[in-house]
Amino acid sequence: MYKMLMFVSHFFYYSMVNIAILDLYNGQQNQGMRCLRQIIKQWGREHQLTVKLTEFEVRKLQQLPDLSFDIYISSGGPGSPLESEDTGWEKGYFKWVEQVESWNNEDRTKKKFVFFICHSFELICRHYNLGSITKRKSTAFGVFPVHPTSEAKTENVFEGLSDPFYVVDSRDWQVIEPNIEKMESMGAKILCVEKDRPHVPYERAVMGMRFNDYMIGTQFHPEADAEGMSLYLRSEEKKKTVIENHGEEKWKSMLDGLGDPDKIMFTYAHIIPNFLNTALQQLQPQLM
Known about the structure:
α7 (236-246) packs across α8. A nine-stranded mixed sheet has the order 2-1-3-4-9-8-7-5-6, with helices on both faces. By secondary structure, the protein is of the alpha/beta class. The chain has one domain (2-136, 150-161, 174-225, 267-287): 3-Layer(aba) Sandwich (Rossmann fold). It is globular. The chain has helices at residues 2-14, 32-46, 88-105, 119-127, 180-186, 226-234, 236-246, 248-257, 264-268, 271-287; strands at 16-23, 50-57, 71-74, 113-117, 132-148, 165-176, 189-194, 206-212, 215-218.
């Protein structure tokens, strides 16, 4: 009996994964955090893992995780990715990024995995000087097709996605004019770009990038689900905005499209879970 208890204790200890969510929503109400918690909880159950999840309020409280976590997910958030330059919270945030990068560059068997979403994606692209961060002519909001590049064919995090695949886009900013020389020097790869719009004279924005072997990010919200998007669209403020800018039919079509299992729910079920699976595969020797 004693040996059996020791075995059970040993199994659960080594099957624990520590995950940190860096919350960049600055205290604003959002659906992104709920979705991330939900994905991580479901993933842990499917893999019979004990997941310790800790959240850090990066902007409002200047909280940042240490290097004791296995996996980090940095959320989206409101506002300009340029106006925070040289603020206290951003300096701390980039210092944390550099600490993770230094850890991974050392000869260690246990690496740290990071996923950057939307606002975080824009910040990290600026930090590494990987492209121009510019304000869009108009807000991108809704469910849109995104096209994977040839580099995405060998990307585990994008496994199972079609061309195009559909995403929730909600942004006023974009990453364009990629700095190819800098990308090549650090091993970064563009994984997807926004839909082609031949009727307008604008460059297609970068929608996803692998920064190095352990850091990846998307401009869109891979964590978004139909429930959260529906609640968001039905809010009085967002409903009014969409109808004023695009008409009531567009608003209704957005709601109708949320029920399509081949669109955002397919993306929801693949990208973040694939990222977690990729991290788990490399962490597995330490977990078993």
